[in-house]
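Researcher: Before we compare anything, I want clean individual predictions. No alignment, no superposition, just each chain on its own. First chain goes here; please echo the sequence and then give the structure tokens.
Model: Echoing the first chain and its structure:
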Amino acid sequence: MPNPTLDLGGCRVTLLDGGALKLDGGAMFGIIPKPLWSRATAADDQNRIQLACNCLLVEWQHETDRRVLIETGHGPKYADKEQRIFAIDPAHWLLPSLESADIDPASITDVVVTHLHFDHAGGLTHEVDGQMRPTFPNARVHVQRAEYEDARANFGIMTATYRGENYAPIDANDAWMFHDGPGELLPGIAAMVTPGHTRGHQSIQITGRDRIAIFGGDVMPTRAHLGAPYNMAYDLYPVDNRASKERLLKTLAERDGLLIIDHEPHTPIVRPIADGSWFALEDVTT
């Protein structure tokens, strides 16, 4: 089955499979009671919900040889215990997805991550001949400087989510591109600083001639998190995250833009529209 592709006008965005995992439904929905969130998202016998790790390939038609990857999923570096806890298959990650689509990881010129938690930055590196190596050897890796500093200081409430093996090979290659606040990261790709889940979280806007799309990261991890108070217990600052979510949805509704939802396993590409004092989501056909 071909990967879903959007034409934004001279700019092609392709959805890629960066893996899958399960996390506790209560933690994923914070203060929202299970009788409410379980209407939209079924839990297994361990109270875990199914999550995807959606990633994007961005290419420009006849304009540049840049090939940009947004997000890298969870990667392959998990021991047996973690595989059981998170229901992760270490063979199911971004690199095999790229290879099945005949995309050479060496052709990726830039990688942009919303933040550096393991399920977003784990695909940055993998083991080759007993050594941890960058998955994308020729790519610069774009992140907010504040996020990198928090990752290296392990600032957060989940002690094992910032993992040094995801960053050290990038350090060694001197491949980081640090950004301080909103603005253009690359031509056609800009950061919208969206704090709340982490202090340095960014959402990524892709601008074509005809339309914009935003990869929201963990501002709104699934479609079921649309509601204003639907934050994760993992969010460092829930009130800030709510404000970031409202600003993101308002931007897209006003500009008829598309939202790509990072952990949504079923309908990751949607169109936000104004709906009274909040927003609704329309499905998008690719």
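Researcher: Okay. Second chain, same rules.
Model: Second chain and its structure:
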Amino acid sequence: MNGLVVGSRRFRADREADWAALEALLDRADKGSLRRLSDDDILALPRLYRATVSSLSVARATSLDADLVAYLEALSARAYFLVYGVRGGVAGRAKRFVTRDLPAAVRGLALETWTAFALLALGTAIGFILVSRDPGWYGSFVPEGLAHGRNPEATTASLRATLGGGDDQPLAVLASFLFTNNARVAISAFALGFAAGVPTTLLILSTGTMLGAVVALFGARGIGIELGGWLMIHGTTELFAVVLAGAAGLRIGRAVIFPGTATRLAAAQVAGRQAATVMIGVVTMLFVAGGLEGFARQLVTATAARYVIAGTMLALWLGYFYLPRRAR
């Protein structure tokens, strides 16, 4: 019996400093949240927690006194919820996602984003060159259902008229239709990434050729600048979203082709989680683009004002995704 008492005292003497340090950190955190802890305290917290859990394991295994075991159990439980527990609630998690997780996921797709952008630019160049040389190519790139009368047979006056504001269709209905179409393109570019990224590549190229064909048609009529304002007031947001969706699909495709040391399924799952995070941002951007396309483009008819809105939106998206954030 005396041996157990001596062993308990020695055990406590050897490790009590860590328990007291952990308890002090927990008390400070309880009084004012983690903001009351310094960087050194936060770094020490996991080490002290592990030391306390180890002490609890030894105390249980060697049948030390029940009061000591109960104390260590309570201390370990308090530390567990501080180290691993969910803090901040739904609002806190949402704030972290918006301010840190989403931009970090987008920045993590830098290679794929540049690749998707290059594919879109290549498709645009192909569509522009082919239609400039032979307008007969226009119908191959721009379906009549999307052209709405904007084709080589239309007069310059009628083409210019389509770039103005106002539309017989109610703005809310128009915005809904445009958002659905844009979302289909972006989500398809993401979803088809599982097929080694090949369909995603073709879809992005196809989107580019359509854009290039339209630019060639209007540019040949001397109204390319007006077209740029008409397209870019929503296009800086919409095309950026399509590029990010394509990048997400390409990231999954790259994981399938080059899984590294992991299995293809495991690599695709890891890439899929990152890509899915990016797609939440893409869907948000498409909502914004739908509003700009269905409302702002119809209400703002001055070309200069359209360019200002387009440039402002592009600067906001680039700043949100790529400006460095202070490490915590």
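Researcher: What stands out in the second chain?
Model: The chain has two domains: 2-87, 94-322. Additionally, Residues 123 and 208 are 4 Å apart (CA to CA).
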